[in-house]
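Methods — Computational structure assignment.
A single polypeptide chain was analysed. Its primary sequence is given first, followed by the predicted tertiary structure written as structure tokens.
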Amino acid sequence: MSKKEEMKIEDLPGVGAATAEKLKDAGYTTLMAIAVATPGELVEVAGVGEGVARKIINAARGNMEMGFFSGEDLLIKREKIRKISTGSKAFDALVGGGFESGSITECFGAFGSGKTALAHQLVINGLSIDESGDPQSYSIWIDSENTFRPERIKEICDNNGLDALKILRNIKVVRAFNSDHQMMCAEKIADLIEKEKIDVKLVIVDSLMAHFRSEFVGRGTLADRQQKLNKHMHALMKVADTNNLCVYVTNQVMSRPDVFFGDPTAAIGGNIVGHNSATRIYLRRGKKDTRVAKLVDSPHLPDGECCFQITSKGIEDVN
């Protein structure tokens, strides 16, 4: 999508200085953000009427060439995809070289399966550490279950010859206390990148469903929960695609009573989470303190599984 000509938000019809400021404060800092918004969203954040909101969106879309891309264009775009290593060569091979940017990767499993341990490794590997040990990018951790442990980061750094304080300075952590707060944190990531001019390579949400699961109880609240969850997943997808960063979400599981043979474990969140996650990985405990990662869904990779272990150095291949 390319601009026909240089145009500012203030140049849009019905947008004055005050309205432009409200839009920017709400995260609508570019014409693209306004072009893909809904009238209801602009009515809510800018306080304008629905008719004015439609004019603003149509003007933004008119200034953008919202056309089709060729397969060649998309191939060139895919060459800019960045991969974040898990620390295990077998795990990296399973997911095509590492967790990729521009999409959401979901890992689900029971407690103790290694979801958060993997997050602590990824949050370090996502910093693009150079040969001198200096991080070149940032990682963001949205913490809904109070799982982030700086001492674990220090342990991994100490055992790999890295300066823990340098690493921790480039990890930004926010504690989400309810589902609305969690959604707001995700929506503010683009604003953080824009204001602080930082290169964010990884966003972690640990865990995705904890607040949604506790706040929406019973079948009567399911529709409302799924609607909010869908909005949250789309916000994460949008920030991943527009900023070429990787979003890693951990998810809880439930036991399906209708499964009599095989593993009854299933991820919660339903099809909303499944369809919005480009890559889905099932984690479980293996033999002798190992963990098993099973790739259950990917747009371009075959199903498979591998073993890895959690050590004082982080995520490693099984000896």
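Note: The two ends are 48 Å apart (CA to CA).
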